[in-house]
Amino acid sequence: MEKRHVKSLLTLGFTSGLVLAACGNGGGSDTAGSDAASGDKAAKDFSVVMVTDVGGVDDGSFNESAWNGMKEWGKEHNLEQNKNFAYIQSNEDSQFVPNLNQAVNNNFDLIYGIGFKLKPAMEDVAKANTDQHFVIIDEVIELDNVASVLFKDHEAAYLAGVAAAETTETDHVGFIGGQESDVIDRFEAGFLAGVKAVNPDIKVDVEYAGSFGDAAKGRQLAAAMYTNGADIIYHASGDTGNGVFSEARDRMNANPDDKIWVIGVDLDQQAEGEYDGGNLTLTSTLKGVGEAVQDLSNEAMEGTFPGGKTTNFGLAEDAVGLTDGNLSDDAKAKVQEYKQKIIDGEIEVPTHPDEVK
């Protein structure tokens, strides 16, 4: 899947769009004045803001995908960056609450929390501001003024595992997660299950960086895996994954005959794989975070904000998937075969590593 297009969130899926952005550093952001979020409002009078996880909007992954969706929304309605849409950068977890409160105090109509780590902070702030509309991505908050959006990451990760198993020449691959959590458990479980479905004898190394914003740690973990014989690494680690790509690029530039690969996450990370002799991004798992941001912004602006509801999207809704990337024709065919089996219900992808048989 190169690009997703799902119908309207809270009815079935996503619509499409793209947007211009605002910025904030260490909790700072430009403001956008308007009433509290409720009822139909003209686009020019409506404002949205996202509070990032620590990866930031240039992480090439999860946060950037959300920000791209917000920029699409702004472009769709010819809106003004820093007035109608903005982001507030979180550089550490302790900034989540003050950043969310800043968004409330600046009278944004709709406030996004990008990532499961924001759940405790958003829950507290949402309880204290019941007239304010919030959206949490990758978690569930059961409050009437919060819409929750989940993705079946394990389904896309399963396809990544199939692709890795079809491609590896060493029968040895790796997985690098950011921070241990239910969300990253899904990525790990899906990847492990996909690899084993194709070839149960393939060795899979699993490591966690303990952070989504530590590229140096990502490089260190990747170096150890490649040195130990893995020729493909799938990362689900946000900005930490930039270190995985850096290590792979340096190795390929130094020894182009020793072919190694990286599998990207959340966005098409093909560009991150460019090195002097070619491209080392095997494929990337995709996740429709940007489409969710765009569609929920439209619903809130039109007065149909789905507060109190949770949506969960996967392959069947075309909300997650896998790029063709540098996959061989045989690998593409195998991925398509397993994708259809998941959609048809023939395969139930595990959501926790302990469930992988």
UniProtKB/TrEMBL annotation:
PROSITE patterns the record matches: PROKAR_LIPOPROTEIN (PS51257)
Keyword Membrane on entry: yes
Similarity section: Belongs to the BMP lipoprotein family.
Keywords: Cell membrane, Lipoprotein, Membrane, Signal
All residue ranges annotated as the ABC transporter substrate-binding protein PnrA-like domain in the record: 47-351
One GO cellular component, as annotated: plasma membrane
UniProt membrane topology term: Lipid-anchor
Protein name: Nucleoside-binding protein
Main localization category: membrane
Protein's cellular compartments: Cell membrane
UniProt xrefs under InterPro entries: BMP_lipoprotein, Peripla_BP_I, PnrA-like
CDD domains, alphabetized: PBP1_PrnA-like
One Pfam family it belongs to: Bmp
Signal peptide positions (record): 1-21
